[in-house]
Structure formats: structure tokens, C-alpha cells
Amino acid sequence: HSSYYHRNSIQQLDLTQRKAALIVPAFETLHYRLTFPKSKAELLSMLDMGSLYTFRYHVWPKGHAPTDYAKWRTATVPYRVAWQPDFEPYVVVRRDCPKYDQRFVGFGWNKVSHIMELDAQEYELLVLPNAFMIHMPHAPSFDISKFRLSAGYRGCLQTLREEFHQDLSRRYGAAALKYLTAERSL
């Protein structure tokens, strides 16, 4: 059902003619067993009952807040959202889109930097009104443990972020300033 829906959305949006990243709204459950909702209506009632949450709502709401879940609840057509700092949605993009920056391996900043690059290249960020994904609980990854426990790891990541910003400035000039300003004001 959902892959058919995605294909249909993609054809209607005609991604061959436009640069767009299709955002699949993300939710999560704290239950190890979950009956996957068959429809958006079912998902919304699970959300209202508290058996699902918007993704990372408790720990990192900024990562998905720009998706605008309140708008998504009633949306029937794809809608555009603006880039915001730390936005890291799950996206469907054409194969020829910019690749992930390979400096960001392990935990931290791989999706954030990718969305930043798409935004810098003027990709439209479009939220799909009937698509959703659900993150299931799992043990913390080895890399997130390293990030939490090691000041050295966090320091390296900060250095890579600064390098990435410099590269963006070189490639996109003044347009890339908003990323740096956003970063500085956090």
C-alpha cells in the first residue's frame, strides 16, 4: 500500500522536472510490539492515545519540528516547509541528488548536513500528507554511546561541522551564511 502510494505521489509531483526532497513524517513508539497503523487516521488515533509520539519528541524535538506535525494532521496535499537548524527528516530524493557527506560517519550530523546541502542547492522540502514511518525501540548504537561518553568524539564532530560550514560558504557564497548564523545563535 505505502510503496504504491509513494510511487503515485512521486509521479504526481513530477520530480523529473523539479528539485524536491519528499519528507516522510517520522513517529516512534516505546513499545517493542506494535500493530502498525494501516492508515493515517489510525496513526492519528494512536498518537492521540499516546501509544505513538512524533519522532524524538522527548529528546530532540528540533530534529523533526519543521515537519510541522500539526499541519500534517489535516494536510491532504504535499506542503513546503522551510529549513531550520538541526532539521534531519527522512527524505525520498532522486538518485542524482547531492550525496551524504562522508566525513559524518557514526553518530551525529549526517542527516543534518545532507538536508543543509539540499537546501543550499534550493531543493524544495515537501512533506508528504499521507506517508509516515515509525521508529521502533532498539538498544543504543555503539556510536551514540561514544558521542555521549567521549569529549574527544564530540570535539572531532565539532571540527568536522566547522569544516563543512566553510565548504558550504565556498560553494554557495552569501547564501550559505544563514547556516552559520543559525549555528552561532544556538
Outline the structure in words.
The structure is a single chain. The chain is of the alpha/beta class. The chain has one domain. Helix content is 41%, strand content 12%. It is built from seven helices and seven strands, in the order αββαβαββαββααα. The strands form two sheets. A four-stranded mixed β-sheet has the order 4-6-1-5, covered by helices on one side. The longest helix is centred in the C-terminal third of the chain and has 22 residues, at 151-172. The chain is globular. The model has no long low-confidence stretch (mean pLDDT 86). One of its GO terms (molecular function) is glucuronosyltransferase activity. One of its GO terms (cellular component) is Golgi apparatus. Keywords: Glycoprotein, Glycosyltransferase, Membrane, Metal-binding, Signal-anchor, Transferase, Transmembrane, Transmembrane helix. One of its GO terms (biological process) is protein O-linked glycosylation via mannose. It is found in: Membrane.
- Domain unit count: 1
Overall shape: it is globular
The stretches of 5 or more residues where confidence is low (pLDDT under 50) are: none
Order of strands across the biggest sheet? 4-6-1-5
- Write the H/E string, N to C: HEEHEHEEHEEHHH
Tally of DSSP β-strands: 7
Oligomer: single chain
**What is the CA–CA distance across the termini?**
41 Å
Biggest sheet character: 4 strands, mixed
Percentage of residues assigned to helices:
40-55%
The whole-number mean of residue pLDDT values reads 86
Question: What is the structural class?
Answer: alpha/beta
Radius of gyration: 17 Å
Number of helices: 7
- How large a portion of the residues is in β-strands, by DSSP E? 5-15%
